[in-house]
Design a protein that fits this description.
The structure holds 2 protein chains of 2 kinds. Chain A is an all-alpha fold. Chain A is built from 9 helices and no strands. Chain A is 73% helix and 0% strand. The model of chain A has no long low-confidence stretch (mean pLDDT 85). Chain B is mostly helical. In chain B, helix 5 runs antiparallel to helix 7. In chain B, 7% of the residues are buried. The chains are: A mainly alpha, B mainly alpha. At the A-B interface, helix 2, helix 3, helix 6, helix 7 and helix 9 of A face helix 1 and helix 2 of B.
Chain lengths: 197, 188
């Protein structure tokens, strides 16, 4: 049976009846959104893919709890975000035990630097250096500001959906995005980018 | 660089940080994991296992507390009650003294019930003989189950048996005095 023109609600109903193809279609439709949310939380492609898989599996087991009050995408993203945050916390704890830093803040800083460091496809021009430092500055943000900024700029979610995922009012989300941009500008200024801001 | 231009650059960088492609077989791997046993089963195992261990420990404690009741030759409360329910006196056809002796365990004839080597436990009362088995029973907390009349019954049986062997003495036969016949009355 074709699932191209079937709504998410109908697919959920068929998946509840044991139709694996219906749930597979749901996976295909929302995999990008789930993955980007996990990537915003974790910063690693491998961890984000594992978290996305776990999110879909958990959503499948909880299909009966989906009542249709919100869209399936929003409901799924809420599950995915919680899964990603839980994985992030466990990774932080594991990293803290492995490295044994002087304090927990130092461990988080090291973790953020490792997540931010990665191969750049471009060369080492000043502009690209600025982008790398900007990326590192975004990683150095507090989790609340960073999550709001990354989710808002991913292009996959509306502010309402982000508010539902983070269980935060839309106005607070917008304020956090603005505050994140201000903090990044301040961080770049400290790094010597005098002409910035 | 103005703030607006810088903010746009920040948004671009943030967008790049969430960009990425999932593997092409992501959907197939998700569907394949749906058929596997859910992890919750393992979680349930981690929850049930300690409960099972605790239940085993509790059972072991109860069994250990019940061990004194299973010493061979030791009369439990159930055995005492069953023996009490059964007629201690012999059947109506059997002579009471013989049956009474058969009921009694071997004991010296002059032994008092108190000093009789009886396997039955010593209950609360005036008896002062130290009986280790009675102490064990009291420690095990089964004294309330022991019926009091058990202490009385042996006395009753002995008394009956004593009375039963008492033979009333017969009256002595008075000798008949026969006077010898006189000579004149003797026959020729």
């Amino acid at each position: 049976m074709s699932t191209v023109c079937v709504s998410d609600v109908d697919l959920v109903a068929r998946a509840r009846q044991g139709d694996p193809a219906a749930f597979g279609e749901l996976v295909e439709r929302h995999r990008a959104a789930v993955f980007r949310a996990a990537l915003a939380a974790l910063g690693s492609h491998a961890d984000a893919e594992d978290a996305a898989q776990d999110a879909f599996l958990l959503a499948f087991r909880r299909l009966d709890s989906f009542r249709g009050d919100a869209s399936f995408k929003t409901w799924l993203l809420t599950i995915a975000w919680h899964q990603a945050i839980n994985r992030r916390r466990s990774l932080r704890r594991a990293w803290g035990r492995m490295v044994a830093p002087k304090d927990q803040e130092e461990a988080e800083t090291v973790l953020e630097n490792i997540a931010a460091a990665g191969p750049t496809p471009e060369g080492t021009t000043a502009h690209h250096q600025l982008r790398r430092d900007m990326q590192r500055a975004i990683r150095m943000l507090s989790p609340k500001l960073r999550d709001a900024l990354l989710l808002a700029q991913s292009g996959e979610y509306s502010y309402d959906e982000i508010g539902t995922m983070l269980k935060t009012p839309v106005g607070t989300i917008k304020w956090r995005v603005s505050e994140a941009r201000r903090a990044v500008r301040a961080q770049l200024r400290q790094q010597g980018y005098a002409n910035v801001g | 660089m103005s703030d607006e231009r810088l903010d746009r650059l920040i948004d671009e960088v943030a967008h790049e940080m969430t960009a990425g492609q999932l593997s092409s077989d992501f959907r197939a791997r998700v569907i394949a994991r749906l058929d596997r046993r859910p992890r919750r089963g393992w979680r349930a195992l981690w929850v049930v296992a300690p409960l099972g261990a605790a239940a085993a420990i509790v059972l072991a404690v109860f069994v250990a507390r019940g061990l004194p009741l299973r010493i061979p030759g030791f009369q439990t409360a159930e055995n005492i009650q069953s023996s009490q329910a059964a007629p201690r006196r012999p059947g109506p056809s059997a002579p009471p003294d013989i049956a009474g002796r058969q009921v009694q365990p071997s004991a010296p004839p002059n032994a008092s019930p108190i000093n009789r080597p009886d396997v039955r436990p010593v209950r609360n009362g005036p008896r002062t003989r130290a009986d280790p088995t009675a102490d064990v029973i009291r420690a095990a907390g089964i004294d309330p189950l022991s019926p009091q009349p058990i202490q009385v019954a042996p006395l009753g049986i002995e008394a009956l048996s004593t009375e039963s062997i008492t033979v009333s003495q017969l009256d002595a036969i008075v000798p008949i005095a026969v006077d010898p016949l006189p000579i004149n009355e003797q026959r020729p």
